[in-house]
């Protein structure tokens, strides 16, 4: 599929030309679990100050990518540089803060005690009040963690992630347990943080969340980047039309290769083609298959088109 190259090369040329060291540079990053390739030769460069969403369905490789960036899982091959340093060096220097899916919080401490405990692990932690304030949990300082709601726990995890004032925040589905208002508050806090030039990469299942809060969306499927661009670019790339037709004798390969066709499926003689240009597709289909009948064209909604882009393709 050509969407990645239409929008922007996965590895932006800006950083090569400019002086700025990328916040994140992943090169050929690969993780295999026996037969499963969870992350497949991923190349990705993040400029400092970007808020980037790693968007994709279950099993796309988001968590594995995040875990490798945090040194929790070793890559099978490929390289990771964070501000030009190794994962270990960047972590030791307090450059990286992380918020992981479902990480456990100890039960028998207050929020302030827990944040202080984490602060003690770092050489130059931020003052407690500032951390609590930035995470929007100043009013929860004396609350025991066992008494927190799911969304409040997420904000405490966020406080722990920012304790060392990291330049890069890596967040795996940070708003998973939050209601709409908490989600908005969370991202408002994030925006205040990134005002200071911090880089954020977060994993999410939700196109809407990625569109609303990220400067850039990297769409993953089966461990590969299938699209990379701003929310508007991704939306225009994924929206399109679907052409269905009964095409006796057609092969999947020939249908997928028609101009304007992004992806094709064939069930018996019934072909369904997701098109970037449905007019071009039909103009090419008819001379190639004059026997085609029952042709239908319909517009794909955004969510539907997104799903089409993130499920297995035939091309
Ligand atoms: N420890 C593991 N052992 C074997 N396979 C794994 C392991 N961790 C992940 N995988 C596989 O790697 C692929 C990518 O998984 P990953 O958790 O990175 O996806 P994801 O995009 O984060 O999905 P989700 O949104 O469900 O968290 C999946 O096929 C998953 O089953």
UniProtKB/TrEMBL annotation:
It is a peripheral membrane protein. It holds the Pfam family ABC_tran. This is ABC transporter ATP-binding protein. Its main location: membrane. It comes from Fodinicola feengrottensis. InterPro entries: AAA+_ATPase (IPR003593), ABC_transporter-like_ATP-bd (IPR003439), ABC_transporter-like_CS (IPR017871), ABC_transporter_ATP-binding (IPR050763), P-loop_NTPase (IPR027417). Residues 24-247 form the ABC transporter domain. It is found in: Cell membrane. Keywords: Antibiotic resistance, ATP-binding, Nucleotide-binding, Transport. GO terms for molecular function: ATP binding. It comes from the Bacteria.
């Amino acid at each position: 599929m050509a969407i990645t190259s239409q929008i922007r090369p996965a590895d932006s040329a800006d950083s090569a030309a400019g002086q700025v060291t990328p916040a994140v540079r992943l090169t050929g990053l690969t993780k295999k679990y026996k037969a499963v390739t969870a992350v497949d030769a991923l190349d990705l460069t993040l400029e400092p100050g970007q808020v980037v969403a790693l968007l994709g369905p279950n099993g796309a490789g988001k968590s594995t990518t995040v875990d490798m960036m945090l040194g929790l899982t070793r890559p099978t091959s490929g390289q990771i540089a964070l501000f030009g340093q190794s994962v270990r060096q960047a972590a030791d220097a307090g450059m990286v803060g992380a918020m992981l899916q479902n990480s456990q919080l100890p039960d028998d401490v207050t929020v302030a005690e827990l944040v202080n405990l984490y602060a003690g692990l770092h050489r130059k932690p931020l003052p407690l009040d500032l951390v609590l304030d930035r995470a929007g949990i100043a009013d929860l300082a004396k609350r025991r963690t066992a008494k927190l709601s799911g969304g409040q726990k997420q904000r405490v995890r966020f406080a722990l992630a920012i304790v060392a004032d990291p330049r890069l925040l890596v967040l795996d589905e940070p708003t998973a347990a939050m209601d709409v208002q908490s989600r908005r508050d969370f991202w408002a806090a994030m925006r205040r943080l990134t005002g200071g030039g911090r880089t954020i990469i977060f994993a999410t299942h939700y196109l809407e969340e990625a569109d609303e809060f990220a400067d850039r969306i990297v769409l993953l499927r089966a461990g590969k980047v299938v699209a990379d661009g701003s929310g508007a670019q991704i939306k225009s790339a994924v929206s399109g039309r679907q052409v269905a037709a009964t095409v006796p004798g057609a092969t999947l390969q020939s249908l997928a290769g028609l101009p304007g066709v992004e992806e094709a499926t064939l069930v018996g003689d019934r072909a369904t083609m997701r098109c970037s240009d449905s007019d071009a597709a039909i103009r090419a289909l008819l001379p190639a298959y004059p026997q085609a009948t029952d042709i239908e064209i319909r517009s794909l909604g955004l969510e539907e088109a997104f799903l089409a882009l993130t499920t297995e393709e035939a091309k």
